[in-house]
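Chain entry —
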Amino acid sequence: MKVGFVSLGCPKNLVDSEVMMGELVSRGHELTSQPDQADVLVVNTCSFIDPAKKESIDTILEMAEYKRIGRARRLIVAGCLVERYRGDIQKSMPEVDALIGVNELSRIVSICEGLPEAPNPIEPYLYHDLTPRVLATPKHFAYIKIAEGCDHPCTFCVIPQYRGAFRSRRFESVIAEATRLFSQGVRCAARAPRADRNAAGEVDPLPVRLPQQGDAEAAEHDR
């Protein structure tokens, strides 16, 4: 089965898309960048501000056309728009075949395959170093998500509503992922933005230069 993805919004959404693509590839499915060649189309949406909501809705309707003019059999909508407007999407967008919230990423394979959804309760989700990912960034660069959610119910921010309470990955998990990315040719990793744990709100990604092959030899020489 060929699956096409459109990922909108922030780097956190991009990492979520990479995780979903990784899950599909690990189960033998093929990714395509050509929507007219996809059997299933997935739109990972953003709804943080009004222009983002409009872009998400326009993209959903654009991809829905490929069910008419292409080979697509299913259209799946994922991400923050689902968390905020799940009922409205189900009611007013019959073109959409299934929905995936930000804590339901592990269901992507069964939903793409059209299998009955398991009635398991939704639990807060955060990927780890063993979770398959297909990077959508340039080969030298990748995002690493070290935490998810937020415990501060600020009136100006909807992140706690969409992504749940704060939780973070183990230090060892982050290092293991960074090491694997380096072995794959990534030379710069940036933290996918998360809600800061103070009044400053959202923080910028912090770039980290991964060690180069000759760094250890140079350090030894300097000694």
The radius of gyration is 19 Å. Residues 195-208, 213-223 have pLDDT under 50 and may be disordered. The chain has two domains: 2-112, 141-218.
